[in-house]
Amino acid sequence: MLFGTEILKYRDEILKDLADLIAVPSVRGEALPGKPFGEEPARALAMVLYKAQKMGLAVKNVDNYAGHAEYGSGNEAAAVAAHVDVVPAGEGWDSDPFTLTRKGNLYFGRGTADDKGAAVVALYCLKALKDAGVKGNRRLRVIFGSGEETGMEDLHYYFQKEEMPVMGFTPDSDYGICNREKGILRLNLLSKEKQPSVIKELEAGVVYNAVPDHARTILSCSGQSADALKEAAKTAQGEFTFKSVPDGLQIVSKGKAAHAMQPQSGFNAAAALIRLLSSVFSPEELGAFCSFLDQSIGFCYDGSGIGVQQSDEQSGPLTLNLGILRLENGQAKAGIDIRYPVTSDGGPIFSEISRRAEEAGLSAELLEDGKPLYLPGDSKLISILQDSYACVTGKPAELYATGGGTYARAMKGNAVAFGPFFPDEPDRRLHNTNESIDIDRFMIHAQICLEAMYRMLTA
């Protein structure tokens, strides 16, 4: 008998609670006492735990890093991990990003697809198991993180305080089953010396793991240089607008946002702006920092410009994203996100980038080296998930690799990414404007999720 269909009776309640959660703009903010990711992520976490408590589930908030709702009894636990924080909304939405907006079968809002929709569904799967009085062989938790989008230190902290599940999954990727996640390397490139004054300000991006969709600079330059820039913009890659401001000439570069695991699917506004500036100004006028970014990063999303291009059969090529750029008062910083193959090592990659940066008069600062995840295809967990998927869809769940970093890697080889989106779905615009879910398809995911949770509980 298929238990997963039990979730269908909760469809209206799921949408109501999703609307409440979407209304919380849970973008990471300034750390506050007891709120490591700021006010709004803490508010979103408190909201989802309150809803779980009202369902009669056991709940725990672990210092506003993460929390869980739990059902069942036993000496060990299985888990589903989702997150309630989101990336910034960005500009260009057709509706309010923090209002759940329906258009036909589509529901729009920041977090619908990544990952509040899946978080609410997982919570209602726990409720369905409780309401049905299912008896299991272990406890089953839904873990809600509040800092996934900015480094995943939320779950690392959580597991310092709480037990590690014996099996689990995170519905924060695609179907079939992602048993291979590339390593994630994040670093800053920093200027050592004050940069030339032709660039008074330069800024782009707010997070490492997204392609910046706009960049802005203010220049102190001659009218001749301004005219040359405007002329060069006519044939340059990208879209630019120019405006005279009290401090000089302002240029805004427009790009296309995308997730850092697929930077080639976006268009990097920062790289485009630097390329435009370098077409007019000499390296001496532009400074070592921007010259290095243009020559060694630029539009080389595979790391070839900086000497770290590589690939493997298991997970594919390395990707590189210039996510953050700041230059002010002559001091400069560039934030880089790299996804490297599962059979590789982040240490030599960072060493090579650091060496090249030093040669150019810059320095490199390592922020994170998240090691790859690789779970063998014959594991018990993968068998449970494959059976759950096949029971609901009648199709096999293929194993695949991703450049995305999910909570699975925080569970020390006991978890994988599983859902919520299907291979034939159109782009749901994660980390982009007009993010959405198709509710009919999402309820198929809900059935798979419940079936898998039922089997993890009773296996």
TrEMBL record:
Name under which the protein is recorded: Sapep family Mn(2+)-dependent dipeptidase
GO aspect biological process, one term: proteolysis
PANTHER family: ACETYLORNITHINE DEACETYLASE (PTHR43808), N-ACETYL-L-CITRULLINE DEACETYLASE (PTHR43808:SF31)
Keyword check for Metal-binding: yes
Source species of the chain: Caproicibacter fermentans
Cofactors, names only: Zn(2+)
One Gene Ontology term of the molecular function aspect: metallopeptidase activity
Entry-linked InterPro entries: ArgE/DapE_CS, Bact_exopeptidase_dim_dom, M20A_pepV-rel, Peptidase_M20, Peptidase_M20A
Broad class of enzyme this protein falls into: hydrolase
NCBIfam families in the record: dipeptidaselike
EC number(s) on file: 3.4.13.-
Highest taxon above the source species: Bacteria
Assigned protein family: Belongs to the peptidase M20A family.
Record keywords: Dipeptidase, Hydrolase, Metal-binding, Metalloprotease, Protease, Zinc
